[in-house]
Amino acid sequence: MTEVKGQCQAAAENTNHNHAFITIADVARGHQHGILGTTGPAIYSGDSHVHRIFVKTTTDPKGGPLHWHFVDVTTGPAIDLAGGEHTHQFCGETSVVLGHDHRFNSVTDAAPDQEEYNCN
Length: 120
What we know:
It is a single chain. Helices cover 0% and strands 42% of the residues. By secondary structure, it is mostly beta strands. It is elongated and about 45 Å long. It starts with 7 loop residues before the first strand and ends with a strand. InterPro entries: YmaF.
């Protein structure tokens, strides 16, 4: 995009976007945990990009020992959506705590596509 004073131009690369996410892990030992947060910045790979997710789950709301798990995964590549936005799938297992873990599989909230515009 040609720079014109007072107008917007496309940035060469946008690593500053991230995605919100919220999901519930599967049931293990009679309870579940929430997984929510914001991804890390974009990590470019080939024609797409991924994001790291590193968060702590919500605590166990049932009557057992109070505990939580860590989630440390990398999303899949961008999945194009209508309206110039994209999302990412993420899945995996939490850390093992008190002899169990939890599985999860979800998608992030949408974010604008990789091209970003800088305005003067």
